[in-house]
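Can't paste images in this forum, so I'm doing it all in text. The chain is below; anyone willing to post the predicted C-alpha cells underneath?
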Amino acid sequence: MIPMKALILAAGFGTRLRPFTENTPKSLFTVAGISLLDNIIYRLQRAGCKAIMINTHHLHGKIDAHLAEKKFEIPVTTRHEPEILGTGGAIKNIADFWDDRPFMVINSDIITDIEFKKVYDFHLNHPHPATLVLHDDPEFNTVAVDGNGFIEAFDEGPLPSTRSAALGNESKRSGFEDTGKLTFTGIQVLNPEVLSLIPDNAFYSIIDVYRTLAAKNRKISAFFSKKYFWKDMGTPERYRHVVFEKMAPEAFKQAFLGSSSKKITRTKLKGDGSDRDWYRLNHGNRSLVMADHGIKRDDKTSEAEAFVAIGRHLFSRGLPVPEIFFYDTFSGLVFMEDLGDVHLETVILKTRNPDEIITYYQSVIRLLGRLSLSGSREFDPEWTCQTPRYDKDLILEKECRYFVDAFLKDYLGMDICFRDLEDEFSQLADKSLEFSVNGFMHRDMQSRNIILKNDHFYFIDFQGGRFGPIQYDLASLLIDPYVELPRTVQNILLDFSVEILAPAIKVHPHHFLSCYKYCAITRNLQILGAFGYLSRIKKKTYFEKYIPSAIKTLESNLSDFKDMEFPGLKSIVKDVCSMAAF
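Text version of the structure:
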C-alpha cells in the first residue's frame, strides 16, 4: 500500500456537547480512558499512515498539551486556525502538508472500528476523486446513494446529475441496490486535485467541493461500512450511550476473565443523596454494579476520579471495599463488584435483640480502625475531590455554614446569619481538631454506606475520603439518623471504641472522647444541612422524615457541654425543637 497522510478535524466548538466542551475539546472526550483523538491516531498508525495533521481552534492549547505528553510512531502535528475554516478550508489550509498521493480526512468526534487501510485501498482501486465512508444510522441517514455506489445527494440537496452517459456501462456494486439513504461517517479519502477547487484563507464547505466535482461529471464514490461499528459522539446522550456500549462487555470480561455473547441488561437502583446514578448490570448469571457520576465538567479532580483512585487504593490495602474492574473517569462510568443490597441500615432495623445490634456495630468499628490506619498509608491527598484533609475551613464552610444556610435559613426560613454564631463555630472547629489524630477518614460513615455480604461488612461511597480524625467517622456511625441507635447503645459502643481504637491510634482515652464529642456536633450540623438541601433544593423530600431524629440528637449532644459552651447554638436548637414539626 502507498503510505498516506491524514487530517483529523478537531477545530470545532462541540456546540451540541455543551456545557462539557466549554472546558474540554470534544476530541479529548474518552472511552475506556482513551481519547477519541488518540483512538483515531492509533488506528491510522495501524493502517500505514505516515504523517498526521490535526486542525485546531477551540481550546487548541489543551489539544497541543495533550499531544505533547504522547509518543506516537509517526509524526503528529497541529495547525491552529485563528478563524474556523470548515472542512474544505481546513484541507486547503494545510496544502503544504499534502503530497501527490490521495489523503484521508477524518472527523475527531467519532468512534469506529472501520479499517482505514481497507478504505484507502478501496479508493486507490477506482478512478474517482473522492471516497466517502457511509454507514446505516437511521438518526443521521441523509446521504442518497445510487445503485452503483455513488453519492447522489446530501441533506443540503442533490448533486448535479451524473446519471446519464457519465455512468456508462459500469456495473452495479454489491451492497448498494437497496440502501436508500445512509449516514456520512466523517471519514473520506480525496485526491489532491480537490485542492485547486478550494479558495485560499476562507471558510469553505467540502460539500461545495463535491458539487463542483459533480458538475464536472466527476463521481463521488461511497464505501459502505455495513459490518463495522461506527458512532457519532455529537451529543452528551450519544456519547454516554457509546461509552456504556463499548465498556460494559469489557468490564464483564475483566471481572470474570472471559467473554460471552449474552446480552447485558441494566436495572437502575434506588438512589440516595448524591447526584450519581447506580445500576445493576446482569450478564447471564453474573452481575456488576455501575456508578454513573456524570461527564466531567472542569479541570478539578472529579468525584469519579476520587472514587476510582481512593477505591483502588483501599482495595490494594486489603480493606473491605468493592473491587473496581473498569472505568472511564471523564464519562464518569465506573464498573465494580456487586456486593448486593443488604445495607447495615436494613440489618439493624430488622434486628430486635440489642446484643446482636451491638455485635454488628463492634464488627464495623473494628473495620473502621483498619480503614483509618491502613487506608492512610501511602494515601495521596491529590486523589481527593474536595479538600485533602478535614480542617478548620472545611468545618466552618461545609458543616457550620451549611447548617445555617441550607437548614436554618432555606429549609426552616429562620432569620439567622452565619456571623451570629461565627465565634461559637470557630471554637467548635478548634475543639474538633485539638486532639485529632489523622488517618483515612471516610466522611460519610453511615449505615447506608455499609453493606453486608456473606457475613462480611464492606464500605462503599468513599469518594469523599481524605485525612481526618477517626472520631468523626465514629460519630457518623453512632449518631446516624437512619437507624437511631439508643443513647445507651451508643455509649456502650463508644466505650468499646475507646478500648480498641485509642491505643491503636496512640491517643489518650480522654483526648479520644473529647475529639469525639465535638466531632459528633460538627457531623450533626452537616447532616441537617444535607437534609435541608436535599429536601428543599433537590426535592428529595423523603429525607425530611429523618430531620426530627437528627435535631433531637443535636440537642441531646449539646446538653453534654457546660452552660458557657455554645449558648447561641443551644438556644437556636432549642427553638427548632419547640417547633410543631419537631
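Residues 5-232 form a domain with the Spore Coat Polysaccharide Biosynthesis Protein SpsA; Chain A fold (CATH 3.90.550.10). Residues 509-536 form the longest helix (28 residues).
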